[in-house]
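Progress report, Aim 2. The chain analyzed during this reporting quarter is listed below.
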Amino acid sequence: KTMFKGIYMGHEGGSDNNTAYKGSAVLNLDADTVVREGIHTDCNSRAEINITGKDGTYQDLAKAKEFYGNENTTLTLSRATMENAVADTVGNIVLSDEAYLSPETGSLNNVTLQNGACLDFNALRDAAEITGDFTGVSNEGEKRGILVLNPEGTLIIHGTVTGTTQFQTSSRMFPGTLLPDKTYIIADAANASESGFVLEQSYIDRGYEL
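Predicted structure tokens for the chain:
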């Protein structure tokens, strides 16, 4: 039940010539902890932010959801849900163990989905983008992550696509409609593995192909 106004993991010297800190930092945060004005790692040479739910399911709602970092910041969300998140300045986002992330903005950098985690862009009817790499599951024994788009939305991936991720529309729990002949995912084929994305099984049962 702890509440912080803000967490700053690095800082400039300021006008009073205090000693600046721009080194590495690690923050381990319980999902219930509130951070009202966000977590700031934009001055750090390397920063890791680990947010973990306590009940072992994605239903544990993360109270901190604003992050202001740089290309050397890694945000890992595990066993928790983060809705309306602001993290477009974070270099690397890792979602694991059925974590659920719904970004407020439609642009993220490098994204990794592990062990049933979900990245949900359903709130965006326009195109979302991954400016870096998109990494799915490479181990056949691991549960695939899920990418959710709006039935009218599109995801553009500028970097490399590796591993396998399940694709569906509208909802993680209840797959929505697919529009025939619509382009949902755009990526450079030279940078994508053959099985980068697969359809949710109910779509396949109805004769859809991706």
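Helices lie at 201-205. The chain has a mean pLDDT of 92. These observations will guide the mutagenesis work planned for the next reporting period.
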